[in-house]
Automatic annotation (TrEMBL):
GO molecular function list: ATP binding
PANTHER family: NACHT, LRR AND CARD DOMAINS-CONTAINING
Chief location bin: cytoplasm
Entry similarity comment: Belongs to the NLRP family.
Record-given protein name: NLR family CARD domain containing 3
InterPro entries reported for this sequence: Leu-rich_rpt (IPR001611), LRR_dom_sf (IPR032675), NACHT_NTPase (IPR007111), NLR (IPR051261), NLRP_HD2 (IPR041267), NOD1/2_WH (IPR041075), P-loop_NTPase (IPR027417)
Record text on subunit structure and interactions: Directly interacts (via CARD) with TMEM173/STING; this interaction reduces TMEM173 trafficking to the perinuclear region in response to interferon stimulatory DNA. Also interacts, but to a lesser extent, with TBK1. Interacts with TRAF6; this interaction results in decreased TRAF6 'Lys-63'-linked polyubiquitination, but leaves 'Lys-48'-linked chains unchanged, promoting TRAF6 protein degradation. Interacts with PIK3R1/PIK3R2; this interaction disrupts the association between PIK3R1/PIK3R2 and the p110 catalytic subunit PIK3CA/PIK3CB/PIK3CD and reduces PIK3R1/PIK3R2 activation.
GO biological process, one term: negative regulation of tumor necrosis factor production
Length: 1037
């Protein structure tokens, strides 16, 4: 980007040009047009001293006047240090998604659950700066946000801060314009465009200093009267030539006019798609409210009542759909106003009609009631009577409703006085308090007045209320502006027409209108508005038929579209929830296989968006058909966690899912495809999607048949992918070849944290390949190699890698063939390694010799926290060595020795360690041949130990004597949380010993006494004893 030449005050004082207004304007236009040298010469002042009125001080005065004019226009705003003074951050986005281009704003928020893809942020004060040292400042920047997200507020905040000299000081000139201003002109030249914002250039006593950079702000592209057409607009480089406003804007964006000027455009997402992506240098998106910001917003709305914000927040959180919409600031404030009115209306026992809103139409009905009641009007005015309220409500809907309705049809959201006159709107009525709650008035730079609804959704609500009333009287199609059509009689006929139109509109602009129209037929909305807008009980004649009509709109299309999901929203507004409830019950019971009709598919897609359960994890496992899955693909894009286990899916389904994961809109973070029928072709399809996907962090393909070639495809993608952190490939027969491919990927990949390769027969060859990768890779933290036929040679290679690897935290070598020789290699690694925390050696062939070597290493190791040695043919000698290690080790918190024949001698050795060890919190001694003597010594240790929380002695033979010893320990022990004495021949006496001992122990949370031949009567006695002595403890018998 070229930089304009900047002249110092001395250079300006040496010029010989003239300072007439016409020449000053020409100079400014030349400068903005990029004619740097010529413009700078013309902008130089006459030959004066620096102290003359037309010297540099005059330039400073001119700029100061401009800044003051901007402050006057945008308002003073919050004081520095106030709650809104912090600079907001914007999300950097890479173009628009299909959802943003094609769907209604509400649909965008609902589908994405109020959030977007993880993205980099840029602070407002760095919005127009290069992102790196090698990049250049953006010329054309676009900031998008749905209606009510705060785009205009952001622009005014920026202009205010710039005028105060707090941000973007490299801009010498900021020219803010709104499309509401531009709409007042049919034609305009660049000259007049600048004059309208920068009138000081025409003052004869002021000279214009050449700015280093200038910023032109165009706020509200979605409000532009004429769509921008970049393919058919004639190029114009003459700043004095008057051309249509839309042509002027396209030429500015293209750089034909003002090529050196930075341009910042704000817009709703769908409208910003008019600008070709190649012309946009930077696109940002305004973030919605976080949970904390929603809370703060409500607190600021009701500073006088501390209980009210908390109550409003609880009501909003009770309905997920409304809560998601509250991420939009304008909707959050509207919701707060409506619920605040509801709170104040509850003066005594709750009236039958004062429900908290659970649908959009109920919420807006409360807002309508608030507006009718005159809440917030000037003090001293009498509250309106019911008759006045009803008259005012119907008059307002009749006045503004037709305007709102036809505005929706024409995508018109800003209205001027000529529009008001065209639709017969009484301008005097707009001054009333009622209309001010729905319509806002704003003066443009051309001294005309622009009107728009406070929020797009209010325009849709008023339009629906108008259509609802007009359809009872109309004999022609209300969607025909001329009023001439085939006769249409009756409300149902007109409702059918509205539903058909809404289903046909591709951009969804009638979706919320249809929701409100359906909601006006619900019993609760009728009760709320019966005294003001609706007739009591009039909904009853149509409600059932409308529900059938809406369900008839659901056709068996290949994919469930947003229009079909909107039908389910309409049924929800109508309080006809049977369809959605039946599908939700089928999801919970795993009976989705029988639901294949178009209505069921639409309901399932609807639940994927709004269900609380689906928000956490969409579980579509167990016999979901390929056809149903295919119809749900557009909705699966926005599921955070997706489970598709045990569906018998084959490779063609993976091709479909690959296309979903490759989509720019994709928000899926975790997907499980376990226990399907995926081969190498399906794995390769998923791998191709990983080359472009930027959202997926976890992929579970266990128990499939991807083989070595499937592993190769995934490995190739891991060399490029930088987001996947967990990959599960258990039971996929990848063999040593597949392990070699994965090892090659690990040498390049730095993002994968967890790799599970259990039961893949990788053998020593695969283990050696992975060991070589671990010497290089410093990102992998968990490696599962369970049941892979790895012997001492493979273990030696892996342990050699651990001597240098400083990243791996968890290693599972369960169910392999590690002998005492392999254990020696493990011991050497434990002495050298300082990062491994979890080592699982269950079900190997360590014997006493191998376990003793590991025990000696544990004495020196300071990192290991969990050691699993279950079922390793360990006896008392190794247990004694481990006991000695525990007396010195201070890092190990969990030790598993179950199913080893350590006997009473081994238990005694471990018990002696517990008397001095202060780190161990979990000890597993199931089926370890421990009798009463071992239990008695363990009891003595528990009386002293203050850190052990879990003790598992299942499957031993401690008997009554052992139970009594442990019971005595429980009377004084304060650390134990879980105790398992299952199958220990306690009998009723031993169990009662334990139960009565709990009278002094209030820390134990769970105890298992199953399999001890207690009997029913004994069980009752024990239950009563535990209920009396330790009511918070759970007992299993």
């Amino acid at each position: 980007m070229r930089k304009q030449e900047v002249h110092t005050g001395r250079e300006a004082g040496q010029g010989h040009g003239t300072g007439s207004p016409a020449e000053q304007v020409k100079a400014l236009m030349d400068l903005l047009a990029g004619k740097g040298s010529q413009g700078s010469q013309a902008l130089q002042t006459p030959d004066r001293t620096p102290d003359s009125p037309l010297g540099p001080r005059s330039n400073d005065s001119r700029m100061q006047r401009h800044r003051e004019a901007l402050l006057s226009r945008v308002g003073g705003g919050p004081e520095p240090g106030g709650p809104l003074h912090r600079l907001p951050s914007l999300l950097l986005v890479e173009g628009l998604t299909d959802l943003q281009l094609r769907e209604h704003d509400f649909t965008q928020v609902e589908a994405t659950r109020g959030g977007g893809c993880p993205a980099r942020t840029v602070a407002l004060d760095r919005l127009f700066l290069p992102l790196s040292r090698v990049s250049v400042p953006p010329r054309v920047s676009i900031t998008i946000g749905v209606a009510g997200m705060g785009k205009t507020t952001l622009v005014r905040h920026f202009v205010r801060l710039w005028a105060r000299g707090q941000v973007s000081k490299d801009f010498s000139l900021v020219l803010p314009l709104t499309f509401r201003d531009l709409n007042t002109h049919e034609k305009l030249c660049a000259d007049r465009l600048v004059r309208s914002v920068f009138p000081h250039v025409g003052e004869p006593s002021l000279a214009v200093a050449a700015p280093a950079r200038a910023l032109l702000i165009l706020d509200g592209l979605d409000e532009c009267r004429t769509p921008l057409d970049f393919s058919n607009t004639v190029a114009c480089t003459d700043p004095k030539k008057e051309i249509p406003v839309d042509h002027l804007i396209t030429n500015i964006i293209r750089g034909n006019l003002f090529p050196e000027v930075s341009v910042w455009i704000t817009s709703r997402p769908s409208a910003s798609g008019q600008i070709p992506g190649g012309l946009v240098d930077r696109m940002t998106q305004i973030r919605g409210f976080s949970e904390e910001e929603i809370k703060v917003c409500l607190e600021q709305m009701f500073p006088e009542d501390q209980a009210l914000p908390s109550w409003v927040l609880s009501q909003v959180q009770a309905d997920r759909a409304l809560y998601l919409m509250c991420t939009v600031p304008a909707f959050c404030r509207l919701t707060g106003a409506a619920l605040g009115h509801l709170w104040r209306s509850r003066t005594g026992p709750q009236d039958a009609e004062l429900w908290s809103p659970r649908t959009l139409c109920e919420l807006y009905s409360w807002y309508f009631r608030m507006a009718l009641s005159g809440e917030g009007q000037e003090k001293g005015k009498a509250s309106p009577r019911i008759e006045q309220m009803a008259h005012s409500g119907r008059k307002m809907v009749g006045t503004l409703g037709r305007l709102a309705f036809h505005g929706l049809l024409k995508k018109k959201y800003v209205f001027y006085e000529q529009d008001m006159k065209a639709f017969g709107v009484d301008l005097a009525l707009l001054q009333g308090a009622l209309c001010s709650c729905f319509l806002q008035r704003e003066e443009t730079l051309a001294s005309s007045v622009a009107y728009c609804f406070t929020h797009l959704s209010l325009q849709e609500f008023v339009a629906a209320a108008y259509y609802y009333g007009a359809s009872r009287r109309a004999i022609f199609d209300l969607f025909t502006e001329s009023g001439v059509s085939w006769p249409r009689l009756g409300f149902l006929t007109h409702f059918r027409s509205a539903a058909q139109r809404a289903m046909q509109v591709e951009d969804g602009r009638l979706d919320v209108f249809l929701r409100f129209l359906s909601g006006l037929l619900s019993p609760r909305v009728n009760a709320l508005l019966a005294s003001s807008l609706l007739a009591q009980g009039e909904h009853q004649a149509y409600r059932t038929q409308v529900a059938e009509l809406l369900q008839g709109c659901l056709r068996p299309d290949a994919a469930v579209c947003a229009r079909a999901i909107n039908v389910l929203h309409c049924l929800q507004e109508l309080q006809h929830t049977e369809l959605a409830r039946s599908v939700e019950e089928a999801m919970e019971s795993g009976a989705l296989a029988g639901l294949t009709g178009p209505a069921h598919r639409a309901a399932l897609a609807y639940l994927l968006q709004v269900s609380d359960a689906c928000a956490q994890e969409a579980n579509l496992s167990l016999n979901l058909s390929q056809g149903v899955l295919q119809s749900l693909l557009p909705q699966l894009l926005y599921c955070r966690k997706l489970r598709l286990d045990a569906n018998q899916f084959q490779d063609p389904v993976m091709e479909l899912l690959g296309s979903v994961l490759s989509g720019k809109d994709c928000r899926i973070q975790k997907i499980s495809l376990a226990e399907n029928q995926i081969s190498n072709k399906g794995a390769k399809a998923l791998a191709r999607s990983l080359l472009v996907n930027r959202s997926l962090t976890s992929l579970d393909l266990r128990s499939n048949s991807i083989g070595p070639q499937g592993a190769k495809g995934l490995a190739d993608s891991l060399k490029i992918n930088r987001t996947l952190t967990s990959l599960s490939l258990q039971k996929n027969s990848i063999g040593p070849t597949g392990a070699q491919w994965m090892a090659d990927a690990l040498k390049q990949n730095r993002s994968l944290k967890e790799l599970m390769l259990s039961s893949n027969s990788i053998g020593d060859g695969g283990a050696m390949a992975l060991a070589e990768a671990l010497k290089v890779n410093q990102g992998l933290e968990s490696l599962d190699l369970q049941s892979n036929s790895i012997s001492d040679a493979g273990v030696a290679a892996l342990m050699g890698a651990l001597c240098t690897n400083q990243a791996l935290l968890s290693l599972s070598l369960r169910e392999n063939s590690i002998s005492p020789e392999g254990a020696q290699a493990i011991a050497r690694a434990l002495r050298a390694n300082s990062t491994l925390k979890n080592l699982d050696l269950t079900a190997n062939l360590l014997h006493d010799q191998g376990a003793q070597a590991i025990a000696v290493a544990v004495t020196e190791n300071r990192a290991l926290t969990s050691l699993h040695l279950q079922w390793n043919f360990i006896q008392a000698g190794a247990a004694q060595a481990l006991g000695q290690a525990l007396q010195l080790n201070r890092s190990l918190t969990s030790l598993d020795l179950q199913e080893n024949d350590i006997g009473d001698d081994g238990a005694c050795a471990v018990a002696r360690a517990l008397k001095v060890n202060t780190a161990l919190t979990a000890l597993y001694l199931q089926v370890a041949s421990i009798g009463a003597p071992g239990a008695q010594v363990l009891g003595e240790a528990l009386a002293v130990n203050r850190t052990l929380e879990i003790l598992d002695l299942r499957g031993n033979a401690i008997g009554v004597a052992g139970a009594k010893a442990l019971a005595n320990a429980l009377k004084v022990n304060s650390s134990l949380r879980r105790l398992n004495l299952q199958e220990n021949s306690l009998g009723m006496d031993g169990a009662i010993f334990v139960a009565t001992a709990l009278s002094g122990n209030h820390r134990l949370q769970h105890i298992n006494l199953q399999g001890n031949h207690i009997g029913d009567s004994g069980a009752r006695m024990i239950s009563e004893a535990i209920k009396t002595n330790a009511p918070t403890c759970t007992v299993e018998m």
